[in-house]
Amino acid sequence: MLIWSKKGRATATIIAISLFGLLFLLPLVMILMSSFSRQWNGILPSGFTFEHFVNAFSGPAWDAILSSLVVGFSASLFALFCGLWAALALRRHSGKIQKWLSIAFYLPSAIPSVSIGLGILVAFSQGYLQMNGTFWIVFSAHFVLISAFTFSNVSTGLTRISPDIENVAFSLGASPWYRLCHVTLPLLMPWMISALALSLSLSLGELGATMMLYPPGWATLPVSIFSLTDRGNIADGSALTIVLVSITLLLMMKLEKVAKRLGQK
Fold it and tell me: Whose CA, among 60, 122, 249, 251, lies 20 to 30 Å from 221?
């Protein structure tokens, strides 16, 4: 620890808890209160209703939930496949080639999502590559934005696996395909599940690029929340926010349990 005195640690703990409560818990509590309120004209809301959550699971809001899940899972699974493939391919190259190719893979994470959205919109809005107004343009943006994180997780997992394990399998006559399916991938599975969880959470919460690209009928949850609050419908937007947070946390906890169980085998 950087603070050695007992009094200093106590002070630092109080400051940390205060900041956590003020900057993280308080906004969530306010959103939760708003999602159950009929009106909010004073310091505190007045009235209590489940109407906003009923609205969240019907009509356009329900379509937004399904759209977010479809885009999130499809982009995350494809990003996991590509990140795994890239990480496995790169470890066969020399250190210098690995370095530059890794930088190329990490590049999208350093570019603002709005810039990526604009670039994809310009690139795929005409000619034979036209995807504007389709699901695929949103899918492409989410894939670009999350692929660096899946690659990073899988690459980290590969560095934790000793090459001796695969060399033993090779010395026993195992083919490259057999070593991949029965040695490398089972050992790598906890990191793959963690990569899927991270990319899925990022995709479910993505707004910047999606706002520029989404076609009719493919508004995701963040886009719907932004649209509702922009029109002054704070209560319905708050209810959708609680739904988004709940879905994300539930998926993360389930995937984390799977990763831990696989890691213990």
Answer: 122
